[in-house]
Each structure stands twice: as structure tokens, then as C-alpha cells.
Design goal:
mainly alpha
Length: 247
């Protein structure tokens, strides 16, 4: 009788543990999906012509995208919530926040010659997101990884002309299809480098958000220009560790 009670208690504990893991896994998916809500809020602020507020929402959405993968792996979401396709969810949210929202931002900021030019990032990234080798087996992005939000930030902060902005859009649209390997920061094999890029990326986002909210002071101390150190670091690592894909 005592053994049966012990077995029953063990089963109850295992069931409670399994339920807890499932709730945690679903919470991670909800965390990922919250990025789409932030994208919606960013669009609303863009339509209100409050680009600094929109940029803050976009940066927070970028931060969520940078860390949700860590939680997904840590909490084994594929094991405890297999009925939700986390990668598909992530791609949906990323396409909204990295492509659609930045395109509307660029248009509202006046950094493109006309709306037709924004079809380039929309179409190029649609193909980029849907290709089977969007990410390589050794954990690199293949082709320009659709960081149109980063482009949108700097086109606006540096007040690029519509012609210059359009040229950047065309150039990066072409880069989506060039099989060059770009660093996937959260999947770097070197742990020290992974943590360095993650924490410096967080600092970069904070600095950029502060710059958007304090343009006069930021301009006085050239903060936007100094923030370019992080994109330069990213490209430098991609040049050193990536290169053309030979597969």
C-alpha cells in the first residue's frame, strides 16, 4: 500500500514538472510573439509621425529577437511545446519587424525616392526568408540578413537624402541574393565572442534609443556616429568568420 502511494506521489510530481515545463515553453513562444505587438505599436507611432517612439518599439522588438532563441533552447521548447513551430513564428515576427515596419519607417522619414522602391526589400526578403538555406549548417545567415531596421535607423538619424537612401536599398536588396555568410550572433561557436557581441549589441540598442530621444545632445557629441562601431564590428566578424558560401 505504501509503495503504491509513493508511486502515485512520484507520478503527481512528474506531471506537475511536465506541466511546468510546458507552461514555460509556451511563455517563450508568447515572448517571441510579443515582438509582433511591438511592431504594431511601432507602425502606429510611425503613422502618428512620432519616429523616435517608433524607433524605441523597434529596438525593443530587436532585443526580444536577440534573446528569445536562448530561452527557447534553454527551456527545450521543441520538446515541451512541439505543437507550435517556433521557427515559423520567429520568421513571421521577423518579417514584420525587420522588413515591413522599417519600410514604412523609411517612407515616413522621407529617405526614399518613392514607395515603389520599397518593393525591393519586401520582395527580396520574402525570398530570403523562404529559402531553404536561409541559415547555413554552420550557423551563419546566408545573404544579407534583412536588417532593414538598422538601415532605417541610420538613414533617419543621418538625414540621408531620398536618392542616397534609395541607393542603399537597392544595394542591400541585391546583397540578399549574394551567398555571403553573415554572423548569427547568438549562435557563434566561440562563447566569449558570443557573449561579447550580445552585450555590446544591447549597449548599442540603448545608445541608439537614447540618441533618438535626445537628438540635440547626441548630435553635439556625435553619438550616432560612434554607434556605428557595432555594425562595423558585425561586418568585420562576418568578413573574418564568414565569406562566400561554397556549398
Amino acid at each position: 500500500m505504501l509503495m503504491e502511494q509513493n508511486h502515485s506521489a512520484d507520478d503527481s510530481l512528474r506531471e506537475m514538472s511536465l506541466t511546468g515545463h510546458r507552461i514555460a515553453a509556451l511563455a517563450v513562444h508568447l515572448f517571441t510573439a510579443s515582438g509582433a505587438v511591438l511592431g504594431l505599436f511601432a507602425l502606429i507611432e510611425i503613422l502618428r509621425d512620432d519616429l523616435p517612439a517608433a524607433m524605441i518599439y523597434m529596438l525593443v522588438a530587436l532585443a526580444i529577437d536577440s534573446i528569445d532563441g536562448f530561452f527557447a533552447r534553454r527551456l527545450a521548447v521543441e520538446e515541451f511545446a512541439p505543437w507550435v513551430d517556433g521557427r515559423r513564428l520567429d520568421d513571421i515576427v521577423d518579417y514584420l519587424n525587420f522588413v515591413i515596419v522599417p519600410c514604412v519607417f523609411i517612407w515616413q522619414a522621407g529617405n526614399v525616392l518613392g514607395p515603389a522602391w520599397l518593393a525591393i526589400p519586401v520582395l527580396a526578403s520574402a525570398f530570403g526568408f523562404s529559402q531553404k538555406e536561409a541559415k547555413t549548417d554552420d550557423n551563419f545567415f546566408l545573404g544579407f540578413p534583412s536588417y532593414w531596421n538598422v538601415l532605417a535607423f541610420y538613414l533617419w538619424l543621418f538625414e540621408f537624402s531620398p536618392l542616397a537612401g534609395t541607393l542603399w536599398i537597392v544595394g542591400l536588396g541585391i546583397a540578399v541574393f549574394i551567398p555571403y555568410k553573415y554572423v548569427y550572433p547568438s549562435r557563434l561557436s566561440n562563447h566569449a565572442l558570443r557573449y561579447f557581441t550580445s552585450y555590446s549589441g544591447l549597449l548599442w540598442a540603448i545608445v541608439l534609443g537614447w540618441t533618438a530621444l535626445n537628438p540635440a545632445t547626441a548630435s553635439q557629441y556625435h553619438v550616432a556616429e560612434l554607434s556605428l562601431a557595432y555594425p562595423a564590428l558585425y561586418l568585420g566578424l562576418s568578413f573574418k568568420l564568414g565569406g562566400l558560401h561554397r556549398g
